[in-house]
Amino acid sequence: MMSKTRGFWSYILSSSKYLNQRTDLVISRHYAKKPKDDGCSRAHADIASNPNPLCAEPCERRKKKKEGILHKIKLKVIEGGTNFGTPFRKIENKPAVCAPKAQPQKALPAPKKKVPPMPAPRPGVQVSILGADTAIGQYVALLLKQCSCIKKLRLYEAKDSQGCTRDLCSVVQDLQHINTNCLVQAFSCACYELERCLQNTDIVLMLESGYLNVDMPFEKRFLYQAPIVKCYADAIANECPKAFVIVCATPIDCMVPLIAETLKETGWYDPTRLLGSVAVPEMRASTLAARALCLEPRYTRVPCVGGTEGDSLVPLFSKAVEYFDFAQHNAEMMTDAVRNAPVAVARSEGPCTRVGDLSEAHALAGLVTTVAHALLCHDIPRVTGFVETDLGQVISPAKYVATDLLLNHKGVYKKFEFPSKLNSYELGLLDMALCKVVKNYELAMEWYQSNYECFVERGQNKLKKNFQAPRHYERLEDCAKHLIE
């Protein structure tokens, strides 16, 4: 019986695949006994202890250690926790945030202050030259034809002059060959084209009509030019009342008040749009001071105040260079040279009525270009001009005086007072000059009042005393009635 039982269990053990596989996995490592000083000793943990032939157990060294308090403290420190009472936080790998790239600095940093809005610049201005039949008018037209800010140039022939041998139409045809975008047109008084010449004009340059001898007395020159200037002013009030008028017809001290009174008749007078030119004497004074000081004439400026010619003109040579003043005898010599420059130039080459046309044309063309850039919002230049004094700024007893100005797109927007810290010689000249300017103004007003009755009888002008009342246009009312019917 025992033999049969033993054979049965042996058969079961031999036929069972599971038991055979488990027993094959049991690894027993046995090493030979060697002396202790052989230098090769193994830990007892590497030797299996009584392995179970049926189910082998893993080695104690491979067992997972139980997490203790130190392990928990380590996890808390890694997580950043300090309070053992708080639960463990879930560790997440947050996406790395890329640092913003530093943009390179621009060439011109943005302005800190907000720039005030400016009107859109216009492509160009239209200039009308009254009295372009003279040589100085043709020279000015030649210089203005090269100006990029002028889109149209209109030349008006006031009368047949003895000094100019070229016809105005021939001059215009010659100027058209210059490779600039400025369009040049010719108008003549024989065809009554003064109104056409002034239509839609932005700048009016009023020159002398005909050649006047520099030795002619002051009053005689005024009586010769006054009727022509009065006619120009009437046409300006009708065709281009908002144009910027530059007066260069001598005597300027009398012509500017005359034009102002004429524009007041129609209610279109704007003191910021009327300017008497002092560019020629200022150019001569600046050149003379620069040569005396061995400086660049372009960057030397001598302001001229008071009037525009003769004894009313006061060039301030003490303001030519900062912290420098000429000796009194040198200042007297240079002042006389500037005041008598037209006579000296005319007599330098013998009997000639006018030979200073080139320098005067250069100065006038520069003034027109400066005004054009100011009207186009390209610049805010500082110039010297003969204008009406500000009623809220008492600087002189004269109503009109030459002083420094600032120009913008609206015209004259700031008038400066006379420079401070003048020497005694300049103060004496300025006192006499203001008295002379007052006399010239009275002469112009006397002629205007004496000839006003003649203009009213002819029906040429109608006086308007109330400038606040609205204007009525008969032509517009007739057209409106026709449309209603």
Automatic annotation (TrEMBL):
Keyword NAD annotated: yes
GO MF terms, alphabetically ordered: L-malate dehydrogenase (NAD+) activity
InterPro entries the UniProt entry points to: Lactate/malate_DH_N, Lactate_DH/Glyco_Ohase_4_C, NAD(P)-bd_dom_sf
A cellular component term, taken from the record's GO annotations: mitochondrion
Record domain Lactate/malate dehydrogenase N-terminal: where: 126-276
Enzyme Commission (EC) number: 1.1.1.37
Cross-referenced SUPFAM superfamilies: LDH C-terminal domain-like, NAD(P)-binding Rossmann-fold domains
One annotated GO biological process: tricarboxylic acid cycle
Keyword annotations of the record: NAD, Oxidoreductase, Tricarboxylic acid cycle
Pfam families reported in the protein's UniProt record: Ldh_1_N
Protein name, UniProt field: Malate dehydrogenase, mitochondrial
Organism of origin: Heliothis virescens (Tobacco budworm moth)
